[in-house]
Amino acid sequence: MRLGFACSWDPVPELTWSHTPWNLRAALRNRVDVVDLGVEHPAAVRTAFKAAYARRVDGRWVSMWRHSKVARRYEETLLRKASRTSDCDAVLQIQDLAVLDKPYFLLQDLSYDVLTELIDQPGGLSHFPSLTREAVRWSAERQHRVYASAAGVLAMSGWFADHLVRVSGLPPEKVHVVNPGVSTGAPDPAATRAAHARRMSGPRRRLLLVGKDFHTKAGDQVVAALEVLRRDVDPELTLTVVGPREWPLPGPVPPGVEFLGRRPVGELAALYDAHDLFVLPSRFEGFGIAFVEALSRGLPCVGRDAFAMPEIIQAGRTGDLVRGDDPADLAKVIAEVLADDDIYRHTHADAPRVAEHYTWDRAARQVAEIAAGSIG
């Protein structure tokens, strides 16, 4: 089988969508003949799109140009031309790029129907700050047209698969759950055992947050919760923050916080092993690969009771979930998890199963099987 691979790549392709397309394409090449149908934007085109859709939001410039009608039509034109001139049997699209004449599939972690539900809730579309209601409506209608002609939609979580059927109205047989793999590579069993032994023998005090979209990941809530914890529970508790280029809150970095900024993905494994609890109560999360990376190394997690997080984190077994934005509530959950030896034992025991499932090789095998089934 020759499988077309279509992705709207970032200027550094490896970094696109947190390495997901890059890693999946590499794994697929071990199973099928992959034909690149890349949707690339020359620097001048990208700059023009960014400038045309730049908006001032909360004192900073943002550009949701990828969601614009002009950018969508540009990508559709490129992909349709590439698809027509290629001899691939089916096409895997990363996100909903275009309606094509040959069988095609979409890999997604969320939809515009999800954004439609969120736009009137407190906080709105914090991850998409300049998207208007009209833009979301137009994008949802366009997405439904792409869904209608697709051979299948590959949902990265069970939560999103259910949403596609229940809200978007896709036939259940058209929706397939394909969990992603981790970007940090397979855990080192010796390092995982050593980290577990340390966590079980000494005080657990080191919290870790990884995410470049600090407010979306509720980093402000985590920092405020740390202040509560250091005041009321243990003044030696610390938080390591990885992801944002610059410190994202007003004023200096507060006591107990180590801000590392951006770090290569290759450095994350050691950070997971060196910390005692991963805390990321995201306000908006399509999937949450960072949770899987932490759990695969035996590191318990605290997330939010929303999106796919409840199916990744087993509350009371491998971590816990919060339901609001109150720092005191988050602090209470963090303190309870840190004190629960059983959670650490269960997370360590479950780590090999998590690591075995969340691989790009397994994801590629699923994609290849689904695509082969569509073309007989």
Description:
By secondary structure, the protein is an alpha/beta fold. The protein folds into 2 domains: 2-181 and 359-374, 3-Layer(aba) Sandwich (Rossmann fold), CATH 3.40.50.2000; 189-357, Glycogen Phosphorylase B (Rossmann fold). The chain is 42% helix and 16% strand. It contains 14 helices and 14 strands. The chain has helices at 20-28, 43-52, 69-85, 112-118, 133-149, 158-166, 189-201, 219-232, 268-274, 289-295, 309-312, 327-338, 341-357, 360-374, and strands at 2-6, 33-36, 54-57, 60-63, 90-94, 104-108, 152-155, 175-177, 206-210, 238-242, 257-261, 277-279, 301-304, 319-322. The strands form 3 sheets. A 6-stranded parallel beta sheet has the order 2-1-5-6-7-8, with helices on both faces. A hairpin with a 2-residue loop joins β3 and β4. The radius of gyration is 21 Å and the shape is globular. The N and C termini lie close together (10 Å). The mean pLDDT is 96. One of its GO terms (molecular function) is glycosyltransferase activity. InterPro entries: Glyco_trans_1. This is Glycosyltransferase involved in cell wall bisynthesis.
